[in-house]
Amino acid sequence: MKSEGSNRPGRFFARDRGAALMEAALVMPLMLMLTVGVWTTARAWNVHSTLDHAAREASRYGATEVPWGGPSAAKVRAVADQELQASAIVPADVATVCIAQGSAPCGLGAIPGVDQVAVQLSWDNYQMDFIFFSINVDLKASAVSRWEG
Amino acid sequence: MRRLSAAREDRGFSAIWTAITAFFVLGVAALAVDVSGFYREATFEQSAADMTCLAGVRDLPQSPSNALDHAVAIARQNWSDLAAVPATIDLPAKTATLDNGAGNVVTIVAGYGGEPTKMSVTVSQRAATQFGNVLGVASAQITQEAYCKVQGLKLGDLPFGAIPGGGFDGELQTGSLCANGNCRPLELPREDGTGASVWFIRNVAIGGQAQLLPVKAAVPPASLTTCVPFSGPCTIVNQDQGVSTGQLSDGIARGNGAAGVSGRFENPTTTSVFSSLGGRILDGDAPEEILDPDYPMFSGVTGAPLGGLGQPPGWDTDLHGLWPPADLDSNYYYNGTIAKCDSPRLGRIPIIAQVDWGPGQPLNLPGGNSDPVKVVGFYLVALFDPNESSDFLNPSDSLKNLSGKVLWLGPDASCSGTGGQVKPYQPGDVKVIRLVDQNA
Asked: Do residues B348 and B382 lie in contact, with contact meaning Cβ atoms separated by under 8 Å?
């Protein structure tokens, strides 16, 4: 038989003390992973979108690079780097797959009577962290403009 | 007892509550991932639509067929799922459609809105959802539009051949590239108030149409159509660097800040001067300032506004806008180096047009002109000394005694081979293309 005192609120909470903590401890990792997962996925989209934008801006710049010369590819890449840096991406993380001008640059099909400027960027093994595990993905972006020379 | 029982009943409440709320949280998280994916897709679609539009519009208004073909070709390059899709081109309607049958459709309209110089590209792409399947939403349709327009050169578009602030390493560079016969020339005024700069200003005033001439002799040759190549390496005997900016309504020239005062291209700390006729150009009170017998194109063209010039033959209002071109308040600028060579020679000066598209250079120019720019073509310029060709060999000779003529050759400015013909300017040779709003 329980004593009178066992029905006091203090005793009652004493028995349940830690239950919520335990349950939270079970749930929190899941919630944390979820939260971080949302963030890291959104960031991956953002990075991919930024790569698209950088490739596009660089390609458009390359389209007006007339005449196309030795330093042109580096200048086009520099434009892409500016866009990457604007989104807090370290340009060194993003590799140049191909920056070229010509009738069929970067292995693209030729367009009769038109020169093209192609910019292909890639962030290989971009790491998406989910706390308890991570996934590496290759983010690629490509843009093709009509050269205006 | 009852309380204890209640406590036991409460056990697990957090977990149940978390499970319930997690359902919604997970749903929102899934929605966030899907929506962010849609935004990424929309960004890509917009970029590709822009490039498709810009690739095609430059063929307008002369050839809607080419415009559609080239737009379709660039669209195929940018959308891999459309690479092998045949295009449906309706020439009478000036439309082209790429449809992969899976919800990805690109529609291109040449002459959008009844304007022969305008193009639209509408992209409708089916973007798959990552988690939407749970709710039975497997995909979403994303539609983006791009509008662009081509314009001919007009007043204010090409006030100067300019070298962007970041440097232009085309054929205007000094050093070894000078051996190619290009030593970054720029026309300069004569001290007596006449000279190439006057003609240059006319070129600006009429939007670039001008007679062609290559020059090697001390005075302009009678024939203005024969290409005279310059041979031998160029030795720079003098050079000057600086920045100039202002408004065309000032007459371009700013004689050290005072309109109408002759001057020269000075160092960056001094207001630069290109023209000896500051304040007088385009004022319309002296047509003879602009009309010149050396320019057959202009002879006999009298009356009408803008310095007495009428609309010249061949003026294409679709490309160049209404005559006279508007806005004398357009800004001009120059930022670069003039190099004087030891012999007269040809050179190419990039034509800079103000456009809305970046990345813009030069930036932070005096006068607050920070508009993005792009190279839309080239002047071909022949430098010569109007008084004495041997002056070229005199290092101490002032640059202002140099003079030159602007040869309008369009975007492919070139002059190859003895006796070859320079390419005459044709309406549409140089165009300014830009993305615009739908109703622009």
From this structure: no
- For chain A, report the end-to-end CA distance as a whole number of angstroms: 97
Q: Please check whether residue A49 is in contact with residue B44, taking contact to mean a CB–CB distance below 8 angstroms.
A: yes
Distance from C-alpha of B383 to C-alpha of B349, rounded to nearest angstrom: 12
Q: How far is it, in rounded angstroms, from Cα B357 to Cα B77?
A: 21
Residues of A in contact with B12 (CB under 8 A): 23
- First CA to last CA across chain B, in angstroms? 79
Question: How many structural domains does chain A have?
Answer: 1
Interchain proximity A49–B10, CB inside 8 Å: no
Is residue A138 within 8 Å of A125, Cβ to Cβ? yes
pLDDT digit string (tens) for B69-101?
999 999 999 998 888 899 999 999 999 999 998
Which among B355, B356, B363, B371 is positioned nearest to B335, based on CA atoms?
A: B363
Q: Minimum mean pLDDT among B175-189, B226-240, B248-262, B269-283: which range? A: B269-283
User: Residue A7 domain-assigned?
Assistant: no
- Compare all CA atoms of chain A with the CA of B435 and give the residue at the minimum distance: A60
Strand partners, B380: B348, B407
Dump pLDDT digits (tens) for A73-117.
998 999 899 889 988 899 999 999 999 999 899 988 888 888 899
Query: Tell me, what's the ipTM?
Result: 0.80
Residue of A17, A83, A144, A147 to mutate, interface with B, max B Cβ within 10 Å: A144
Q: Is pLDDT above 60 for B235?
A: no
Q: What is the pTM of this model?
A: 0.57
Q: Which residues of B touch A19 (CB under 8 A)?
A: 11, 14
Paired tokens of B361? 């250079």
Instruction: State whether B51 and A27 contact (CB < 8 Å).
Output: no
Cβ neighbors of A36 (< 8 A, separation 6 or more) are: A129, A130, A131
Provide, as residue numbers in chain A, all residues whose Cβ is less than 8 Å from the Cβ of B15: 23, 26-27
Tell whether A78 is covered by a domain: yes
Does B201 score more than 90 pLDDT?
no
Domain residues for the domain of A98 are 45-146
Distance of alpha carbon B253 from alpha carbon B261, whole angstroms: 8
Which residue carries 């379709």 as its tokens? B72
State the sign of the Cα–Cα–Cα–Cα dihedral A33, A37, A38, A43.
Answer: positive
Residues of A in contact with B375 (CB under 8 A): 64, 66
Of A120-129, B110-119, B178-187, B431-440, which one has max mean pLDDT?
A120-129
The residue of chain A with its CA nearest to that of B33 is A42
